[in-house]
Task: inverse folding
């Protein structure tokens, strides 16, 4: 008769297959919940700050520390209404109110400390497109296609 695996061994095996430095499943799930909740709060203009409510801000990603106590929120203002620095300053001014509302809407043991950063995903995407459209890369792609056909 086989014995069931002990819980501490099962956890050790699960951690063994995780990529070091990669966020865990719980970090990703809680980060997505925080992202959706913050987006909804900003879209509904629930914070009593005229400057913040006048901006249209998208929340691109939320990454959490391993203990879920610090959340880094990547944001980008839309439609050219405000600069990234103005949006981050307005969010930082109201981070205590945002954190309080997050804690009331989510069932977490601790409401994470919010840190706002510029979302540079779009800038990296533009740089990637520029690189792929360069003559050198196009020449290499065409040369590889010619090798595969031969």
Result:
């Amino acid at each position: 008769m086989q014995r069931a695996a002990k819980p501490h061994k099962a956890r050790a095996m699960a951690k063994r297959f995780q990529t070091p430095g990669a966020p865990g499943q719980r970090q990703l799930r809680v980060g997505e919940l925080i992202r959706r909740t913050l987006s909804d709060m900003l879209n509904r203009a629930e914070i009593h700050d005229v400057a913040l409510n006048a901006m249209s801000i998208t929340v691109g990603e939320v990454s959490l520390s391993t203990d879920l106590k610090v959340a880094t929120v990547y944001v980008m203002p839309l439609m050219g209404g405000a600069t990234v620095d103005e949006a981050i300053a307005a969010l930082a001014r109201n981070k205590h109110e945002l954190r309080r509302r997050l804690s009331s809407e989510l069932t977490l043991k601790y409401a994470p400390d919010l840190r706002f950063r510029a979302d540079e995903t779009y800038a990296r995407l533009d740089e990637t497109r520029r690189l792929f459209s360069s003559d050198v890369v196009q020449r290499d792609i065409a040369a590889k296609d010619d090798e595969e056909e031969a």
About this structure: The two ends are 60 Å apart (CA to CA). The beta strands are 57-64, 70-77, 113-118. The chain has two domains: 24-119, 120-150. The mean pLDDT is 82.
